[in-house]
Each structure stands twice: as structure tokens, then as C-alpha cells.
Amino acid sequence: MHFSFNELNSLHLDVLKEIGTIGAGNAATSLSKLLNKRIDMNVPEIKIAEFKEIENILGSADTIVTGVYLEFSGKIKGNALFLLDTISAKNLVSLLLGTERYDESKEKPCTDFTELEVSAIEEIGNILISSYLNAISSFTGLSVKPTVPYFACDMLGAILSVPLIQYGQTSDKALFIETEFVNGCDRVKSHFIVIPDIESYTIILESLGVI
Amino acid sequence: MNEVVKVGMADLKVIAEYGILTTLGLGSCVGIALYDKTTKIAGLAHIMLPSSKLIKNNQNKAKFADTAVELLLEIMTDMKASKRHITAKIAGGAQMFSFKEKASELLNIGERNVLATIETLNQHNIPIIAQDTGGSYGRTIELYAENGILIVKTIGHGIKTL
Questions:
Q1: Spelled out in words, what is the top-level CATH class assigned to the domain A5-207?
Q2: Is there a contact between A165 and B24 if contact means CB atoms under 8 Å apart?
């Protein structure tokens, strides 16, 4: 079946939102266990936007962010991004490794990450994205296999260009499922974005009997 | 006061005489800046993919290197720019993540975007007078209509004036 975003009705969107909630709930639990901290998440939002509008939705395209990117394949294909602002990334690493907290006032808000910090962030991204995908996989009964995670610290637009270019081959719009994770007292704020490819929406919705 | 006009992803804009065209956070995409110094007409495109020919869904001309250059030239010459005076500066085409695992098609999309841009500009006989492409970092660019200067800003890789 050919699929276009215009054919999505509110039932379809609710189903996708529910899938996002299940995935993100699982991921938040993993993060909470990993850090032994309380993690709050918001209700996932389904966003459909033209490429040129995307920067207004997720924040300015020149904002510096730290991101972990991975692709997944299997019955459902697509890619996922775990985005943190740089301060949150530093704080997250110190929580995980038990190192001293990053001092914003003394150290410059840097884009320099040590090899250890990079692997720590990659691994957190990996665990989160995998638990998210696992939940979706068991809910829908469809297989999902993630690739290894990749780290980058750069402008938001530049990082987003990687998944969006893939999308660009088939569409002028992108649909993504976005969730925010917050650990208030340790100042870690992150965004979690999952972008299944276009055929996968049909497969997901079919597997749940809504189309 | 210089007015700043934003060009989004898969988007293009043309301005004349004064103002700044900017596109933020170019990653593997390429920013194509065309300028005619005789009429001070400046055009900027933010392309995502090399060619419209291999893709069915190709209505958005600003998305592809080949059609974006054509459309920019069309709009600029409609505004009385003279094609033989138009020069090009290009930036972007980075590889944001160092993929180790598989030879993904995405692996060299930045490079392919740059090559396709150069090829298209050559076909239209538009000389490329400056280029800042490749690497593994994002770029924000600003094109000044007043003089055709292209500023390339990066995070941790300095600022360049082309």
C-alpha cells in the first residue's frame, strides 16, 4: 500500500503516540535504573513537518547539541536520535561515571569530549534507543535490529540532516515521534526522536490492525 | 540595517542589493550561493540530495542539486541578473557521523552532494570561485547581497570568509 502523511487520521496518530509512549516509558525506566535516579518524561508528541520548518520545531538549527544516532532495520526500518544539550551531556556523564560535576562557570561550555565521555554517551544512547525499540518490537510483534550508535556534537541542523536526507528520497515531510526526558535535580534534559521510514508506518499500523 | 532572510532545509531564496541570506546548521546538505556582482542579486539554496533524476518524488526543486541550481538561475535572471556574471560559492557536504560498521549509502552523501553541485554548476558554466566543503562538522553560512561575501561559521573549526 502506498502511504502518505495526508492519509493519517487522528486514530493513526493516537496509535503512533501510544507506541511512542510504550517505547519511551521503557527507555526512561532503563535510564532510571542505569543512573539510579528518578527520570520524568513527557507524553510523546507526533510531529509532521516540512523540512524547512523543522528547525522551528526542535529549536534553532545552529544550537549546539550532543547526539547519538543509530539506524535500525528488520520489519521496521528507520533511525533514532538521542539529543542532549552539551551541559546535560556533561552532567549525564558525571552521573554515570561518578566523576566530578561539570562546572559551567569555570569550564567553557565545550564541544570537547574525551574518548571515555564519548563512549559513555554512545552507550547511554544505545541502551535507551534499544529499550525503546524493544518495547515497540514486543508490542507490535515486528522484528527490529539496531546498528551500533554514533556520536556527534555539533549544530542541531547538521545532525538532523543525516536522518532527514534519508527521508528526503521519498518525501518532502518528515514524521517523528519526540519525547523529552528530564532529571530535574541533576539538570539533565534530553530529547528522543524516532523516525521510522515511510513504509514502516504502514507496517506498524497494519500490525496493530488499524489500517 | 541588513535584513536577514532565512533559508531552511530543501529551500531557496533570492534577494537583491542589500540584506543577508542565511542557512543554519548545514550538515551533509550543501549550501549553494550564487551572486551577480553587477546587479547585486544573490541567491542561496540549501540542497539535501544530489539528483532529482533518480527519485520519483521530486516536486520540491530546492531539494536537489540539479534542479535547485536551475531554479536559482531562473529566478535570478528573471530579476535581471546576467547569467554570464553569476559566480558560485559552495559550502557544506560534511560527513557528520563516522560510520564504522557498514558501507551505508549515507556514508558519502555529503561528498556526493558536493560532486553533483560542482557538476551542475559546470554544466551551466557558472564558475565556482570559493568552496568550503567536507569534514565532519556543521556549518552556518551567510551570504551578503551587498558584496557577495560568504561567511562560513562552524563550532570549533573557526570562521571563514569566502
A1: alpha beta
A2: no
pLDDT tens sequence across A86-119? 888 888 888 888 777 666 655 555 567 888 888 8
ipTM, 2 decimals?
Answer: 0.84
Whether A51 and B97 lie within 8 Å, measured CB to CB: no
Residue closest to A135 by CA, chosen among A18, A42, A10 = A18
B143 vs chain A: nearest CA distance in angstroms? 16
Interior angle at CA A89, CA A85 and CA A95, nearest 5: 145
B93, closest residue in chain A (CA to CA): A158
By annotation, the residues of B acting in catalysis are 29
Mean pLDDT, to the nearest integer, of A26-46? 82
Low-confidence stretches of chain B (pLDDT beneath 70): 1, 57, 99-107
Q: Alpha-carbon distance A4 to A109, whole Å? A: 42
Nearest by Cα to B89 from B17, B141, B158:
B141
CB contact under 8 Å between A162 and B96, yes or no, is yes
Best mutation target among A169, A170, A173 (most B Cβ atoms within 10 Å) is: A169
Q: Residue B107: which domain range? A: 4-161
- pLDDT in the model for residue A18: 84
Q: Does B5 touch chain A (CB under 8 A)?
A: no
pLDDT of residue A107: 57
What is the number of structural domains in chain B? 1
Residue of B nearest to A156 (CA): B25
CATH number where B144 lies: 3.30.1330.200
Q: Are B82 and B38 in contact (CB under 8 A)?
A: yes
pLDDT tens per residue across span A115-153: 888 888 888 888 888 888 888 888 888 888 888 888 888
| Cα A101 off chain centre by | 25
Residues with Cβ within 8 Å of B83's Cβ and at least 6 positions away in sequence, in order, are B73, B77, B124, B126
